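TL;DR need structure tokens for one chain.
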Amino acid sequence: MLSAKHAALAIKILSLCLIAAFSFFVASAAVPETNFIKESLESVDGSSNTVMKFSAATLSTSLAISALPDDFATPLAQSLADMNVYFVGILVILFLEKILIRYGIKLAFSILIPLACLAGILSIAVKKNALRGFAVRLCVLGLAVAFVVPCSTHITGIIASDLTEYVNDTIGETEDGAGKLNEAMAGGTEDQTIFEKLSGLFQTAIHDISDLLLHFQNTIRRCMNSIAILILTNCLMPLLTFLILKWLLKELFQITLPMPPAKKRSGAGGESEFESSSQLGSELVGTGEHRP
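>> reply
TL;DR here they are.
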């Protein structure tokens, strides 16, 4: 018969083995197929399409502006073309998020969490607090890797819907401006100036260079605001979600750092300083003496 202590240890080890088996054989295949994960993947794909659509709109507008006579709007065209550096960076982050959703969840449930359970079993067997702390940290890391992007996409969809609409409106205005500019360059009568053609198409008082430049400056301003929104929602939100999720899991698991045992320095006569000071304190209490 096992003692109560050994029976408790056996139950802990068996529980960790069952968790590892469930994580490897069940969770690693079932979790990626849940609606929560599928919706997150669709959200990332939608963000990627938005960024690529935005990039195409700025490039088409840049080409249309550069076709204006006298090259007076070339700096604006260059500014629009330079925005694609930001789009490339955002796309890289989105592709990393997509990879993390598709493969990070399987990595967490098929490798990280079973390894954490194995480290927990070893910590019980050899009675090492360092292994227990490592097991908990590995489990926290696995859960954070698995759910950081899905959680961030759902949080972004809830709190940033208005910002997303602003980005879509900016893309629509940019595409519309490029189309009207190309139409003005190709249509109209020969006796009309480019500003007269644009004035009719844009339904605004574009009578000279300054009015036209002001219109596209406003377009560039909206594009920069939209890029900032894309960076916030697609780059900073996942990072912030990861930090919050990691902190929350850490608090739930109550991770404590194991401290090394205090070293005893040997004093004179082969006795440790701790023992000598304790002896001295006992003698002082016994004799009633007091040393300042």
